[in-house]
Amino acid sequence: MQDRVCTSQLGAHVGERVTVAGWLHARRRLGGLTFILIRDGWGLCQLTVEGRDPLEGVENESVVAATGTVVAAPEAPGGIELRDGTTTVISPAEAPPLTLSKRELRASLPTQLDLAAISLRHPARRRVFQVAAAMVAAFRETLRGRAFTEIFTPKVLGGASEGGANVFALDYFGRRAFLAQSPQLYKQIMVGVFERVFEVGPVFRAEPHETTRHLNQYTSLDAEMGFITDHRDVMAVVEEVVAAMVAAAGAQEQGVRRPFPTVAFWEAQEIIHSAFGRDVRGEEDLSPQDERDLGQWAKAEFGSDFLFVTGYPLAKRPFYTQPDPNHPGDSNSFDLLFRGLEIVTGGQRLHRYADYLAALEARGMAAAPLEWYLLAFRHGMPPHGGFAIGLERFAAQLLGLANVREAALFPRDMSRLQP
Amino acid sequence: MQDRVCTSQLGAHVGERVTVAGWLHARRRLGGLTFILIRDGWGLCQLTVEGRDPLEGVENESVVAATGTVVAAPEAPGGIELRDGTTTVISPAEAPPLTLSKRELRASLPTQLDLAAISLRHPARRRVFQVAAAMVAAFRETLRGRAFTEIFTPKVLGGASEGGANVFALDYFGRRAFLAQSPQLYKQIMVGVFERVFEVGPVFRAEPHETTRHLNQYTSLDAEMGFITDHRDVMAVVEEVVAAMVAAAGAQEQGVRRPFPTVAFWEAQEIIHSAFGRDVRGEEDLSPQDERDLGQWAKAEFGSDFLFVTGYPLAKRPFYTQPDPNHPGDSNSFDLLFRGLEIVTGGQRLHRYADYLAALEARGMAAAPLEWYLLAFRHGMPPHGGFAIGLERFAAQLLGLANVREAALFPRDMSRLQP
């Protein structure tokens, strides 16, 4: 539309006659006045009309335009309203199946997700995805500023990328193929090309459980870098990226204390024992409850929302993980907990061909199906490592959403293939 | 590695003693000198050694470091070399299966693709993906600058996104699902939320033919925008985005003449008839030969590498396409040809619910499976449209590559699921 002014730009047009266009968000009558709220892609604008509602009979969510004079009005949304206005209906709508005009969406999560085409229009829902987009932009900008190159890798594979479990199988011209669980093997190969790479893309996990933390498709923010000393060089990049993402989200940054506190896996278990009275020593991984306890501890001890846990038992990490040279049963790996939830996982990888052959053999995995990948290590790879951030999980945790599905536009879970 | 200098930054260190690290790219002996070329993620560096090669017996592609004094040397790569150097081997390699040290890779395309982990290290191969990354960054920056919001949509669907043909089917917890052929339906829904959206992501086409122009997975650069008058508003954005991508690629921009010339579909057929003597009038689509002829014509007539073709017959465009109000058998759609190859497709979409019901019925498609999508139109959608750019195809054409597979890191075609 020519000459249309976005609601976010009205402040620059006080005293002028302008046209706004958007969705009929709400109406309210008070005394002899009608207040008409129009929502566009960026915000809300109030049109105040004396007397009869010019849009009487027009349902909310209809697409409308209003032309009027921009007036400062401290009590209106954004401190601005339109007066002396005329309205036109661009595209009429049926009455919406959800009430979008209240501050909160009062519908169950399944209903909201079923009606995503409408529920996502609610300003509170919409904001989640504005924040997520800003976080992704910050991820990319931080890494591009450190000379990382963006890559795009295959999502349909001849074999499973991280081992055989939890993969979706598909028919590829009569052959069996799998959806990528991560870009891991490809991003490592690309360290041999660009040294530093990142990828933003979907990954697919056929995990057969319904929790508030899991999606069967999610957006993975992956990075990988060469010529590191060990996993701590990777953690330094994670810290920078994550801090930039929090800042881009416009979140209050009180809990971002750099450097992020770090504890070893065995220390984490000792803390859970001494501070929370649960003896988890000897377990090979942290449970969700362990992570929550550690999050609480990091907040109390350091005022930090973030906590690195390093040195997970090698047996629980994937075959490409570099052992800790001082404690070979442990690994040069880390997770980053954010308010008690793992949002990043990473570490140093093996880089010697012989080490790969030994690691695969120790796990009973065949090397031959991975020859295309092992080629990189036969022909020269530097010490390297990387990390992956789960976008939806990070955004949900940052915004205090109870369920990761609320941070996916159209989430995929065991029962949900639509919308 | 601490204190390591990237090859691209050596110019700032002339006279200093520095360490570079990378892959042993090539060696050459001349008179009493040995020239050692080290390749890192950004370029090449020459180490010149008097007498015996200190890396004798070390295979090319081994990861090495060299410490030496930076000296201006006009005949060396980048005009810089290291002298009085010492070398160390960080990670030894087996002799590479391809010769990377020559200006060109002398291996067949299938061999290059099979050995992608190594062939991508060749500077000429690597450059393709640096350019592609820069093009994607320009796509995003241009759209963010115009208030578009980035979105991430599902790649696993309960039904086919663009109609039933050419979709990959998969097993989703015992149910039949499909890989997304495009984010089309989702990006339209999101116009109802943000008005302007874009997505960069993989799409999957089970097209059962092997050509130099098709991939079964490719990177689609999608955008969609609301409150347009018609498809020409979309074309204006395409032109801006595409020009920014060409500029970001560092390509010579001689063929970028703005505004891009535009011909109607029927005019295009007349041109092919009159200028090339082939009577294609009455055909419902353009063939690859038609596109090549039109590319040649646009270059001769306007000095333009780009040509918009508008008004394709409605029957050949998807169900959501807006008819041309003046010629209802034609559509408010366009393709953008670049040097005689379609690289962008787009147009105005239907926005009225009743129009969708009529269009689906006319094509014999059921509305019920699309109810989750049609909901957006029942509840208010503005006139809108969008476009999709095939990244690999655009990059290949821009760089003069004969086969689109050369612009995919790890291409997927009918026979290729690995690497």
UniProtKB/TrEMBL annotation, chains A, B:
EC numbers on record: 6.1.1.23
Keyword Nucleotide-binding: yes
Name of this chain's protein: Aspartate--tRNA(Asp/Asn) ligase
Family, per entry: Belongs to the class-II aminoacyl-tRNA synthetase family. Type 2 subfamily.
Annotated InterPro entries: Aa-tRNA-synt_II, aa-tRNA-synth_II, aa-tRNA-synth_II/BPL/LPL, Asp-tRNA_synthase_2, Asp/Asn-tRNA-synth_IIb, NA-bd_OB-fold, NA-bd_OB_tRNA
Compartment annotation: Cytoplasm
Keywords: Aminoacyl-tRNA synthetase, ATP-binding, Cytoplasm, Ligase, Nucleotide-binding, Protein biosynthesis
Location (main, coarse): cytoplasm
Main function: Aspartyl-tRNA synthetase with relaxed tRNA specificity since it is able to aspartylate not only its cognate tRNA(Asp) but also tRNA(Asn). Reaction proceeds in two steps: L-aspartate is first activated by ATP to form Asp-AMP and then transferred to the acceptor end of tRNA(Asp/Asn).
Record-annotated Aminoacyl-transfer RNA synthetases class-II family profile domain positions: 129-419
Catalytic activity field: tRNA(Asx) + L-aspartate + ATP = L-aspartyl-tRNA(Asx) + AMP + diphosphate
Subunit structure: Homodimer.
Enzyme class: ligase
Keyword Cytoplasm: yes
Swiss-Prot/TrEMBL site (Important for tRNA non-discrimination) positions: 77
Binding site for L-aspartate: 162, 205, 345, 349
Sequence segments annotated as region (Aspartate): 184-187
